[in-house]
Design the sequence.
């Protein structure tokens, strides 16, 4: 059953997976539990919730929590009871899902997510190969980004055309197209931002590599 209204998102409030909130006139569904990340920024944790398109529902998981009598559930919370999953249509103080059908509805899991294709590969540099501006390569164990298009100049020699990829710095302003490393991954700034975390602010960053 579609949830057509939800409580307003509150910054810093913890939300379990499956929670539905309203923000700036739109509804958002928590794909994963989070401590109150902004729904429009932290798209890894949140997805648009549209009553006409419920494809944003979280994928079935064996980690769905068991329903607990007396526990408070927010609208959109998902719980398992007697082997069946239920979604809270309205906030409630732990009513039994099989009895309080006003507050709960059975929850049909979405199909498993399809593994993404590799659209942002990081390849080994090849001498004489044409590279477009923004291309990312590896050479002698390091990563380089092409500042300008070039016909395969050596990244360690042609520093006018290439720059070594540096580590992400919190609070540092990044222009669109900037490439950074964070953790064990590499990210490119989809949009300019003031140093948002690449693993959280997936609206502003795209992960590179496969």
Sequence:
């Amino acid at each position: 059953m579609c949830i057509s209204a939800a409580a307003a998102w509150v910054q810093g409030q913890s939300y379990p997976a499956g929670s539905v909130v309203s923000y700036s006139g739109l509804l958002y569904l928590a794909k994963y539990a989070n401590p109150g990340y902004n729904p429009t920024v932290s798209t890894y944790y949140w997805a648009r919730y549209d009553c006409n398109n419920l494809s944003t529902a979280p994928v079935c998981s064996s980690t769905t929590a068991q329903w607990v009598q007396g526990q408070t559930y927010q609208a959109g919370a998902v719980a398992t009871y007697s082997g069946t999953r239920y979604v809270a249509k309205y906030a409630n103080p732990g009513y039994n899902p099989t009895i309080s059908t006003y507050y709960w509805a059975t929850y049909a899991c979405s199909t498993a997510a399809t593994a993404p294709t590799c659209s942002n590969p990081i390849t080994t540099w090849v001498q004489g190969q044409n590279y477009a501006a923004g291309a990312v390569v590896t050479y002698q164990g390091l990563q380089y980004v092409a500042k300008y298009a070039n016909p395969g100049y050596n990244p360690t020699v042609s520093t006018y055309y290439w720059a070594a990829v540096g580590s992400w710095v919190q609070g540092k302003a990044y222009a669109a197209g900037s490439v950074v490393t964070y953790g064990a991954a590499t990210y490119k700034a989809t949009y300019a931002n003031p140093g948002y975390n690449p693993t959280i602010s997936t609206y502003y960053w795209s992960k590179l590599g496969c």
